[in-house]
Write a structure and sequence with these properties.
heterotrimer; A alpha/beta; B alpha/beta; C mainly alpha; A: alpha/beta; D-Maltodextrin-Binding Protein, domain 2; 11 helices; about 40% helix; C: mainly alpha; MetI-like fold; about 80% helix
Chain lengths: ~260, ~240, ~230
């Protein structure tokens, strides 16, 4: 027992000392669920000899971790929050990296008939009119904020028995929607990677309003002197390089391109 | 340095608004066997515990001729229902010695010697919980004797034992008495009291009703209550 | 039902292939929780023993607080530890957030009340048995503590194992303070939460079964060890 314990403690210690340089980055669940991280991180390790430790959280918590100085950089997708973050001085700047898109998922039977909708806002209005069950992340994440802005644009105040806020991550929310046969707004990557689809299908996509811009924000060293600003800058340079462009645009899931590189 | 004489001055033990014993005065000299008798509930156990210093006094004080910690360390107490530790018989007997800085070999030889005397050598390596009632009381007595106490208290040690176990315990006690160990013991077995006593304390309603040398007490008790008690009458 | 079988099959598959990720997170789970149990026992066993034998003024209150803390949701403990060890928190300079060390700290806080409370209940009876003898022998408080802990070790083992069970299966607190970082702070329970989030129920269930098997194995191992040690004794 004692030997096992000592060995295991040694293992923990080693895990911490495996790489020469380490930094912590908070990313959104949707980014992590896309599987892109598993492609990019080993390449980053190879090219930069840098171990990027990912904290997979909602956008709200990611920004919080950045504010507290608990991570060195964040990669999120909620423009207005990001701009506020920069304005408050927690990041020196905001760098757009790539975008993917949101899609509307729902039961195959499509009781609200959103598959034929012209625009995303029309689709949401139809769901509300039909009182069809709709699962909302309700967790202040980027996806949730996107959903709220869409309801606003559709001029619908979502409330009532049909509107279910679950306060959970993308995967858990998709599980809930699948269980209830409800509509839900998801990023495409999470949806494609989601294994428990049940009767749910992709019903609506392609409206430009559904595009989902990811941006990289290094945490400001002036606010938190201990952050690894140099490493964060190195990572930013890599993420905006042609090498990253090739990997991001080339990433395929179920034969679909998920992300479009658009860093300038 | 001897702890005797022990003086108890106006000691009272009061619990939940009731005086269990006292106020009473008592002096104890350093030799002999004092047997404490009296009706149930008279306060025999409380008196013994108070003299041993494990019952908080509400009033009064007990003084020893030697410094208090030294005096307390030279006493041992055998309880009516023996405290059996969840260990082997050997470990039970060795426990009081293990609290003092004593070498393992010294502890071992003392335990062997005492186990022999109380007749538990055969059981030394058994768990104490498998012992019979008589063996448990012998274990408790043996454990007390390992300390070679100057003063040994026994609180009705044979209360629930059969004749044979009682005799074996008395044999051990007689051996100790012959070697000059000071004993203060309560009992409600009058035969035992007559067999062992050199002095008698008759306790009644929390007071020392009568204190006398044994032969004088058993032949000519001076108080009505003591005579009634000796006659086997109910004493209230 | 089909998913349960798939989960079982996945567990068997992971075990047979001796999946290196699985080995790593399993060892990390064990290391974090065993360390936490050792530290928590060192605190909680003497604390429980003192509560069992001392009659001090606020004893009842202390016991009530302990019992209440036993029901404290781990996620609250996690949040409090997070806030304390965050870079912006009072102990932020230590830089311990998102490390196995802080996961150990959170688990210690979670299981100390549990172990102390079980210890207190188990030793109360032992103390009432031993009280007269130990007082009569003029034992010091540390001697009493040592005697109670040693003679009650069987029950205390159970207390520590209860703490182990609670800690190894805990996810809320270590998710927050550990961050579930791959190769760094990911343990069995946070991996299960991650797989569930991805809808990979078979994988999540597989890991769950391995967690259950691990908990059972540790319990059996400890009980077997302690039994051989005391055979023919108490």
């Amino acid at each position: 027992m004692k030997h096992l314990l000592v060995g295991a403690i040694a293992l923990i210690a080693m895990a911490g000392a495996a790489s020469a340089e380490q930094m912590k980055m908070a990313v959104t669940t949707s980014f992590h669920n896309s599987g892109l991280a598993e492609v990019l991180l080993p390449e980053i390790q190879k090219d930069l000899d840098l171990e990027v430790q990912l904290l997979v959280v909602g956008t709200g918590q990611a920004l919080k971790l950045g504010r507290a100085g608990d991570v060195d950089a964040i990669l999120v997708h909620s423009r207005s929050s990001e701009e506020a973050f920069v304005a408050e001085g927690f990041a020196p700047h905001r760098r757009e990296i790539m975008y993917n898109d949101f899609v509307l998922i729902g039961p195959e039977a499509d009781p609200a008939g959103i598959a034929q909708a012209e625009r995303a806002t029309d689709a949401l209005r139809q769901i509300s009119d039909a009182n069809a069950p709709f699962v909302s992340r309700g967790d202040d994440s980027g996806t949730h904020k996107k959903e709220m802005s869409l309801w606003m644009a559709a001029e619908v105040a979502p409330s009532g028995d049909w509107y279910r806020e679950v306060g959970a991550g993308m995967g858990a929310s998709l599980n809930t929607a699948a269980g209830m046969g409800a509509y839900i707004l998801s990023d495409r990557a999470s949806w494609l990677n989601f294994a428990n689809k049940a009767d749910e299908v992709l019903l609506f996509a392609g409206d430009p309003v559904l595009f989902n811009q990811y941006a990289y924000l290094p945490v400001n060293q002036d606010k938190h002197p201990h952050v690894q600003a140099a490493l964060a800058a190195k990572l930013e340079e890599w993420l905006t390089s042609d090498r990253a462009k090739e990997l991001i645009n080339g990433y395929r899931l179920a034969d679909q391109q998920l992300f479009t590189f658009n860093a300038k | 340095m001897s702890m005797f004489p022990i003086h108890a001055r106006a000691i009272t033990v009061r619990r939940r608004g009731r005086d269990l014993i006292g106020p009473l005065d008592l002096s104890l000299e350093g030799q002999g066997v004092t047997i404490v008798i009296g009706p149930n509930g008279a306060g025999k156990t409380t008196l013994l515990r108070a003299l041993h210093g494990i019952e908080r006094l509400s009033k009064g004080e007990i003084t020893y001729a030697s410094p208090r910690p030294e005096a307390l360390a030279a006493q041992a107490f055998v309880f009516q229902s023996p405290v059996i530790m969840r260990r082997t018989v050997r470990e039970n007997m060795a426990y009081p010695l293990s609290l003092r800085n004593m070498s393992k070999s010294e502890i071992s030889s003392r335990v062997d010697e005492v186990a022999e005397r109380v007749g538990l050598t055969f059981a030394l390596n058994r768990p104490a919980r498998v012992l019979s009632g008589g063996e448990r009381q012998k274990l408790a007595l043996g454990r007390a004797l390992t300390l070679r106490p100057e003063l040994l208290f026994l609180d009705e040690p044979c209360a629930s034992l059969d004749g044979r176990a009682t005799r074996e315990i008395e044999d051990v006690l007689n051996h100790e008495i012959s070697r000059g160990r000071r004993i203060i013991m309560s009992t409600h077995n009058m035969g035992q009291a007559r067999r062992l006593a050199q002095d008698v304390l008759f306790i009644h309603k929390g007071q020392i009703h009568e204190a006398a040398p044994a032969d004088q007490f058993f032949t000519a008790a001076s108080t009505d209550a003591a005579r009634a008690f000796l006659n086997g009458d109910i004493v209230e | 039902m089909g998913e349960l079988w798939e989960g079982l099959a996945q567990a068997v598959r992971l075990l047979i292939t001796f999946d290196s990720d699985l080995v790593e997170i399993t060892l990390r789970s064990l290391a974090v929780t065993c360390t936490a149990v050792v530290i928590a026992s060192a605190i909680a066993l003497p604390l429980g023993a003192i509560l069992a034998m001392r009659r001090f003024k606020y004893r009842r209150l202390t016991i009530a607080i302990l019992n209440a803390l036993m029901g404290l949701p781990p996620v609250v403990v996690g949040l409090i530890v997070y806030v304390i060890f965050s870079r912006s928190g009072p102990l932020g300079v230590l830089g311990l957030l998102f490390t196995p060390t802080v996961m150990v700290i959170a688990q210690v806080i979670i299981i100390v009340p549990l172990i102390a409370s079980i210890t207190q209940q188990a030793l109360r009876e032992l103390w009432s048995d031993y009280r007269d003898l130990l007082i009569s022998l003029n034992t010091t408080i540390p001697q009493r503590l040592g005697t109670l802990l040693w003679d009650g070790r069987r029950a205390l083992l159970t207390a520590s194992l209860a703490g182990f069970g609670r800690a190894i299966g805990e996810v809320g607190a270590i998710m927050i303070v550990g961050g579930n970082i791959d190769n760094h702070t990911r343990v069995l329970t946070t991996a299960i939460a991650l797989e569930t989030g991805k809808g990979e129920f078979a994988m999540a269930l597989g890991l769950g079964f391995i967690l259950i098997a691990l908990a059972i194995a540790v319990n059996i191992a400890i009980h077997t060890l302690s039994h051989t040690e005391q055979e023919g004794r108490w």
